[in-house]
Amino acid sequence: MIKFLSSIQLAITLIGAMVLASVFATLFPDVEIFGAFWFRGLLLLFCLNLLMCTVKSLPGILHRIKKLPSSVNEERAKTLNFSGPEDVEKLMDYLKAKGYKLKTSSSEGQQNILAQKGILNLIAPQLLHLSLILVLIGGFLTSFGVEDQVTCFVGERADVPASVASGMVIEVNDFQTIYDADGAIDNWITNLNIYVNDEKTASGTTKVNAPLKHQGVSFYQKSYGYYHLIELTGVQPGTYDVPDKKIFSLENKTFNIGYSEEGAVVSFFEGHNLTETVVLKDGDKIDFPNDTVLTYIELNPFTVLGVKKDPGTPVVMTGFLLMTIASFLFWTGRYREVAISLTEGKASLIVYCKIKAVRDEVMEEISERMKVK
């Protein structure tokens, strides 16, 4: 069973199944895939597969790390001459300067040296496995995340949906539309306070592609809008909150009120044709027939914030950090060890490394400091 769970065949099968499921989810976004129990099962099984592979490789790594010097008697070992203790001392100083960690032992007139370099490179594959496990676990946790939205007017408060965070309330201090130098919209920014159980716990701003995060909840800019507070005297007197650019008829005149940087723009229409526009500031008035007067009171902007709780995000980010470290270790060096046995003016030398070019380079560098027999 352990052999099966740690097999490369199982890993390939699971990867293929998850890739197919992801392609299907992309083609049919309305079908719930990533939250399905069978997909979560694939994630957990792949985690178990990687974990078993990692555990199986640990004894070999520990053996390498704890390895002690021993006699070199392999046929492929290279024999070198040395004139005396001073040559051995120079060789050991050279290896130390190159970053090798040295271990020595002596027995029956023979001195054995073990030089190791790149211990951290030795654990790079296992670190990569661990990073993948964390990413998969994060993906598993993310499948239990929840997402909703909350709408709130400037100067007011609104409850965050209980499915995301119980007892959390936002208070919007300000909402702004930011324009660039050419007059095009650059961003939307909401400044808000966050209350938990009636206690203010955070404040800050959220904008497009820059969410505000607090207690595991992310607030991000999703939408926005405007209402216009007006007052009518004469016909249909009263105070009204008018949606932005909604068409109305008053005293046989058809119009809407829209937001602009300059103020509220009242646009009059005849049929589908625009006949007149008037820009209003707070307190400005427009006269209609029959002594009807429209007074513009103020703009009421509102913001729509997406709220999301994703318990897997910190785990995924940790996994990606470890993956970056593992990749760095892969590309900055390889584990190598130099084993040397010294006896009667002769040195038997062998270099261990998975990359032949590295083995040859190390052997050549050492040979330059001693005469080859």
Biggest sheet descriptor:
6 strands, antiparallel
Radius of gyration: 36 Å
- Write down the secondary-structure element order: HHHEHEEHHEEEEEEEEEEEEEEHEEH
Q: Helix/strand-derived class?
A: alpha+beta
- What is the overall pLDDT average? 88
CATH fold group of the domain at 67-118 and 336-373: TATA-Binding Protein
Shape: elongated
> Could you list the spans in which at least 5 consecutive residues all have pLDDT below 50?
none
End-to-end gap: 53 Å
Instruction: State the total count of DSSP E strands.
Output: 19
| CATH architectural group of the domain at 67-118 and 336-373 | 2-Layer Sandwich
In short:
By secondary structure, this protein is of the alpha+beta class. It has helices at 2-5, 8-27, 37-66, 85-97, 119-122, 124-142, 313-332, 356-367, and strands spanning 78-81, 101-107, 110-117, 146-153, 157-159, 168-179, 185-196, 199-207, 212-214, 217-233, 238-243, 248-250, 253-260, 263-270, 273-280, 285-288, 292-309, 336-343, 346-352.
